[in-house]
Amino acid sequence: MMDYEKIKAGVQLMLEGIGEDVTREGLLETPDRIARMCAEIYGGLYEDASVHLKKQFTVERNDIVVEKDITFYSVCEHHLLPFYGKAHIGYIPNGKVVGLSKLARTVDVFARRPQIQEKLTSQIADALEESLAPQGVIVMLEAEHMCMTMRGIKKPGSKTVTMVTTGCFENNFELQNRFLSMVRQ
Ligand SMILES: Nc1nc2c(ncn2[C@@H]2O[C@H](COP(=O)(O)OP(=O)(O)OP(=O)(O)O)[C@@H](O)[C@H]2O)c(=O)[nH]1
Ligand SMILES: [Zn+2]
C-alpha cells in the first residue's frame, strides 16, 4: 500500500527545495493533505479493473454499445500535472455486456495513476478486451494536459486525442466512423 510517511517527507523536501517555510501556518498540514490526496488520485494503482468487469449480462443481439463523455482526471507521469477530459468507449458484444457504470469505473482505475494518455487509452481497451472478449473495442480519449498549458509550451485549449481499436474495429473505418458519429451526436 501507499507509504504516507514517505509522501509526507517528500513533499516537505520539495517545499524546502523551492525555498518555502514549511513551518508557516498555511503549509503545516500540506504534506499530510497531499499524502491523503495521493491515496485518492493514485488509488487506481491498487485496483484491478477485472473486479469491476466480472459481473456480466447475457444479450440476444450484439449491437454496438457506446458510453460517451465519461469525464476523467489523470496525472501526467512526466510532470505530475493533471490531464483531464472525456473518454468515449464503444464495443460490439459477443453475447455478454457489462453494467454501464463499470465502463466508467474501468476508466477511473487506470486514470488514477501516473499516466500518459496513450497508455491510459490502451489499458482501458485491453481490460475490456480481456474481461468481456467482445467482437471489438474502441476507446477514444480527448484531454487537455496542464503541462502543455500552465508551463512549458503554454498552449491552452490544445487537445490531445488518442484512439485504440481492437478486433472488428481494427482497420474497419466504416465501423470506426459509426462510433465517431455516435460520439459527436
Ligand atoms: N506522448 C505523451 N506525451 C506526454 C503526455 N503528457 C505529457 N507529455 C509530454 O511529455 C514530454 C516530456 O518531454 P521532456 O522533453 O522529457 O520534458 P520537458 O523538457 O518538460 O518538455 P516540455 O514540455 O517540452 O518543456 C513533453 O513533450 C510533454 O508534452 C502524454 O500523455 N503522452
Ligand atoms: Zn506532462
Summarize the structure.
This protein has 185 residues and is of the alpha+beta class.
How would you summarize the topology of this molecule?
Blueprint: H1 4-17, H2 25-28, H3 30-41, H4 49-53, E1 56-58, E2 65-76, E3 82-92, E4 96-98, H5 100-111, E5 114-115, H6 117-132, E6 136-145, H7 146-149, E7 160-165, H8 173-184
Parallel strand pairs: 2-5
Antiparallel strand pairs: 1-4, 2-3, 3-6, 6-7
The site of guanosine-5'-triphosphate (GTP) has 10 residues, from helix 6 and helix 7.
Organism: Anaerosacchariphilus hominis
Catalytic activity: GTP + H2O = 7,8-dihydroneopterin 3'-triphosphate + formate + H(+)
Pathway: Cofactor biosynthesis; 7,8-dihydroneopterin triphosphate biosynthesis; 7,8-dihydroneopterin triphosphate from GTP: step 1/1
Structure description:
- The protein has 185 residues and is an alpha+beta fold.
- The protein has two domains: 4-41, GTP cyclohydrolase I, N-terminal domain (GTP Cyclohydrolase I, Chain A, domain 1); 50-184, GTP Cyclohydrolase I, domain 2 (2-Layer Sandwich), CATH 3.30.1130.
- Helices cover 43% and strands 25% of the residues.
- It has eight helices and seven strands, in the order ααααββββαβαβαβα.
- It has a five-stranded mixed sheet with strand order 5-2-3-6-7. It has a two-stranded antiparallel ribbon with strand order 1-4.
- Strand 2 (65-76) and strand 3 form a beta hairpin.
- The longest helix has 16 residues, at 117-132.
- The radius of gyration is 19 Å and the shape is elongated.
- Guanosine-5'-triphosphate binds next to helix 6 and helix 7.
